[in-house]
């Protein structure tokens, strides 16, 4: 039930069990995963991984694994997310170590946003970004999103809400 999306360079696909070691390594790295709810132990990374699969079943949307199409290498995650307690759906992204600075996050996030505004029929979308995550703030702004407000997320604390342009504006 998880659709596969493709871009010029990327394949966004559903998670596979074989992805877990890469996801666990990301969550184990506090410097990399701080802005994504980490660091997490391997056991808690497994719980996040399994929860993200269940999110697709419950909500009908979630996080895709992002592969470089040419090589099949897993390079990140992007997706649409609204766990219990979230004020509204959000668009998030992560690029794994060694893949930064290649435009992967933006390319993948734009594909996910197009899916939200197209097949899902959404009319609005946010990205919740933790203060200090300057790279994600810059990406949100490159995608046309603007700072709207600050919220207190019960799971991770203060977050900055960036509102994406409406479907007719992208």
From TrEMBL:
The keyword Transferase applies. Gene3D superfamilies: 3.40.630.30. Keywords: Acyltransferase, Transferase. Its EC number is 2.3.-.-. The keyword Transport does not apply. One of its GO terms (molecular function) is acyltransferase activity. SUPFAM superfamilies: Acyl-CoA N-acyltransferases (Nat). It comes from the Bacteria. Residues 10-167 form the N-acetyltransferase domain. InterPro entries: Acyl_CoA_acyltransferase, GNAT_dom, N-acetyltransferase. This is GNAT family N-acetyltransferase. It comes from Seohaeicola nanhaiensis.
């Amino acid at each position: 039930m998880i659709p596969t999306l493709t871009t010029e360079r990327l394949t966004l696909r559903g998670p596979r069990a074989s992805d877990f070691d890469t996801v666990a390594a990301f969550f184990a790295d506090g410097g990399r995963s701080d802005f994504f709810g980490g660091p997490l132990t391997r056991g808690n990374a497994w719980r996040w991984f399994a929860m993200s699969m269940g999110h697709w079943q419950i909500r009908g949307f979630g996080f895709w694994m992002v592969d470089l199409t040419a090589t099949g290498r897993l390079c990140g995650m992007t997706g649409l997310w609204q766990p219990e307690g979230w004020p509204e759906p959000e668009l998030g992204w992560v690029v794994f170590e060694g893949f930064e600075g290649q435009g992967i996050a933006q390319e993948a996030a734009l594909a996910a946003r197009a899916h939200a505004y197209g097949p899902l029929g959404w009319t609005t979308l946010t990205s919740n970004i933790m203060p200090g995550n300057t790279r994600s703030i810059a990406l949100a702004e490159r995608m046309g999103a603007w700072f709207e407000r600050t919220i207190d997320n019960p799971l991770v604390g203060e977050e900055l809400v960036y509102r994406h342009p409406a479907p007719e504006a992208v």
